[in-house]
Amino acid sequence: MVKVSNKVLLAGGLATAIGISGCKKYEDGPMFSLLTKKQRLTGEWEAKKVIVDGVNQINQNNMELELEFDSDGDFKLKSTYDYTYTNYYGQTTTYTYNNQVTGDWEFSNDKEEIELEYDEGGREDWEITRLTNKELEADITVYMQDKLFPELELDSKSDVRIECEKQ
Prior knowledge:
This protein has helices spanning 6-21, 37-41, 57-60, and strands at residues 43-52, 55-56, 64-69, 74-86, 92-108, 113-118, 123-131, 135-143, 160-166.
């Protein structure tokens, strides 16, 4: 029978731990996945949080947001939310805003970001912080005027975070 020394076991365990920690691509995980990043992203998602400048718009504006990423690089985003407008005389009116946009997506920055190019113009970069088969979390940089939430007037100065669950 072969006797293995404690030093060999310790070195093997340390090498394994370093190797596994190297698999972690995103800030919040996962540590390891058998699915490719494209396989994890492809599918239908529902936003559970859309945080704009510290305020969760899902709770604030009765927002619903559905996303669909196709494996061929197409995407579709549908949003519904309430927008309240106060006119010069102090009268308040609430509108329900429905919007659907389409475009192309691709990974960038060694698959740490998703670039969204809208068919009608405009672009967003999503810096992925978590991507599992069931969860997607990202910090969003909006270029020009946002196409998904035009009434919220998001731009490159807005601090936007999205947290989604796969449907």
